[in-house]
Amino acid sequence: MIRLALWLLGGLLLGGIVHLATVLLLPELATQDAYSRLEPMAPVNAVVALPPPTPEKAALPFMDPAFAAAVCRYDLTDGPLKFSVPVGQAYTSVSFYTRHDVAYYAINDRAAGRRVIELDLMTTEQRSALPGDEEVTAADRLIVESPSLTGLVLIKALALEPGLMPVEQATLAASKCEQVE
User: Fold this and answer.
1) Do both 113 and 174 map to the same domain?
2) Which of 105, 95, 97, 98 is nearest to 148 (CA)?
3) Residue 69 in contact with residue 154, Cβ under 8 Å?
4) What is the domain count for the chain?
5) What are residue 44's phi and psi, to 5 degrees?
6) Both 18 and 46 in a single domain?
7) Are 151 and 99 found together in one domain?
8) CB contact at 8 A, 49 and 171
9) Cα(168)–Cα(151) distance, integer angstroms
10) What is the 3-state secondary structure (H, E, C) of the chain?
């Protein structure tokens, strides 16, 4: 009886280890992640509007049709990016993801407290290379450190009514994701 209980315990332990390893490795092995799905329609370091989702087709899963959405696929290999998003009428959010869909930063219009969300996106190494005696303070300049060289920035603006969707789409069209010179 004890031998059977030990075999069951060993089987459960091995099954738990396999399950945990699978869950942790799956995002790295997925071929249709968000970055790959957006690659054909979104050039690197440029903001591109996403088409409105329909029940049959959406650029990304679980997109809300009440939000206008745009995306910037970024690559920080050649240097930091300067990022700016005009704030929409109701609610605007900006979310940052690594190449493998790990969210690492988000900000909305209320947290920004301005009519334009402006920030610099760079790696830790690029930030440490900034001049130390710069007169720009943290309050003047928001710097987001990316844990990876490539990733996605997802911008969403809420349209309170369907008739306001073109206004929000025009607001997102004015967004910029540019290489710092």
Assistant:
1) yes
2) 98
3) yes
4) 2
5) -75, 140
6) no
7) yes
8) no
9) 24
10) CHHHHHHHHHHHHHHHHHHHHHHHHHHHHCCCCHHHHHCCCCCECCEEECCCCCCCCCCCCCCCCCEEEEEEEEECCCCCEEEEEECCCCCEEEEEEECCCCEEEEEEHHHHCCCEEEEEEEEHHHHHCCCCCCCCCCCCCCEEEECCCEEEEEEEEECCCHHHHHHHHHHHHCCEEEECC
| Tokens 């720009």, located at residue | 136
Number of residues that this document lists for the chain: 181
Pair 72, 14 in one domain: no
d(CA 150, CA 134): 27
For residues 48 and 154, what is the distance between their CA atoms, to the nearest angstrom? 10
Tokens of residue 45, six digits? 């370091």
Report the C-alpha gap between 145 and 34 in whole angstroms: 20
Residues 172 and 114 occupy one common structural domain: yes
What are the average pLDDT values for consecutive 10-residue runs of the chain, which has 181 residues? 92 95 81 78 89 84 89 90 88 90 88 83 85 57 87 92 91 88 68
